[in-house]
Specification:
- The chain has two domains: about 1-80 and about 155-245, P-loop containing nucleotide triphosphate hydrolases (Rossmann fold); about 90-155, no CATH class.
- About 35% of the residues lie in helices and about 25% in strands.
- It contains eleven helices and ten strands.
- It has helices spanning about 40-50, 70-75, 95-100, 110-120, 125-130, 140-150, 170-185, 195-200, 220-225, 225-230, 240-245; strands at about 1-15, 15-25, 30-35, 55-60, 65, 80-85, 155-160, 190-195, 205-210, 215-220.
- Helix 3 (about 95-100) packs parallel to helix 6.
- The radius of gyration is 18 Å and the shape is globular.
- Mean pLDDT is about 90; it is low at about 235-245.
- Bound molecules: adenosine-5'-diphosphate (ADP) and magnesium ion.
Length: about 250
């Protein structure tokens, strides 16, 4: 059974439509990618699932329970965490204070120290900088901190909104290694990306969004081979060398 089920989600920003009709499912232990170019509706979809914006139509269910309309803090405490686009850190607060905020929704407060240990083991850089304001961190470290903060709520489902955005290629590779490691440890991932080859390499299943609707979906391995995806979304023309190699 699907852990997360989104049915006919519509989200409006006043008169503007953020997403028009999104239906998707995430099963336990899967990595699901949400793909699409700028403005397709990835952030809106993840924000609605996380309870940061209220849907105007449709239903979001988590392990059989309708969660659409519930506030963000209630949703975090059910085991869904979001590492948001642009990180949204408190730049004047230290690394440790930012991480502690991630643990606010923990039902069992005694878990907090174990979670700090886990995040610091995953990102030793954050341990070194625990007393530094988040505003002094590099882009790569800020992404680690946003991810670490999400992990501090001990989620079952981790949602990541464009984690590779603005990171140097070497850092992106390290980040994706970390995501693969978290997945092997049992975490379910819902990953929004514009960088489609990256996301398809780690995902089991993917949805391609276009102007607020699902344009295409399927197993990641199939979408990797799909000509429509390759031409429209992978930008194969800008990457003709790779295409020739792949054939
Ligand atoms: N705060 C907002 N106010 C008005 N329109 C918005 C807002 N956020 C997003 N939108 C619009 O909603 C649509 C989907 O945007 P978004 O979810 O941010 O897409 P993506 O994350 O895929 O780039 C776009 O047309 C965008 O302009
Ligand atoms: Mg976005």
């Amino acid at each position: 059974m699907a852990e997360l089920k989104v049915e006919h989600l519509e989200v409006r920003y006043g008169d503007l439509v953020g997403v028009a009709d999104i239906s998707l499912q995430v099963e336990a232990g899967q990595v699901v990618a949400l793909l699409g170019s700028n403005g397709a509706g990835k952030t809106t979809t993840l924000s609605a699932i996380a309870g940061l914006i209220a849907p105007s139509r449709g239903r979001i269910a988590w392990r059989g329970e309708t969660i659409s309309g519930q506030p963000a803090y209630a949703i975090v405490s059910k085991g869904l965490a979001l590492s948001p686009e642009g990180w949204r850190l408190f730049v004047g607060q230290t690394v440790e204070q930012n991480l502690r905020l991630g643990a606010t929704a923990l039902a069992d407060r005694s878990r907090q120290n174990a979670l700090f240990d886990r995040v610091y083991a995953l990102f030793p850089r954050l341990a070194e900088r625990r007393r530094q304001p988040a505003g002094t961190l590099s882009g790569g470290e800020r992404q680690m901190l946003a991810l670490g903060r999400a992990l501090m709520s001990e989620p079952r489902l981790l949602m990541l909104d464009e984690p590779s955005l603005g990171l140097a290629p070497a850092l992106v590779e390290t980040l994706y290694d970390t995501l693969a490691q978290l997945h092997r440890q049992g975490l379910t991932l819902l990953l929004a990306e514009q960088s489609i080859p990256l996301a398809l390499a780690i995902a089991n299943y993917a949805y391609v969004l276009q102007t607020g609707r699902i344009a295409l979906e399927g197993p990641a391995a199939e979408l990797e081979r799909n000509e429509q995806v390759r031409e429209i979304y992978l930008g194969v023309r800008a990457n003709a060398g790779n295409q020739a190699q792949a054939r």
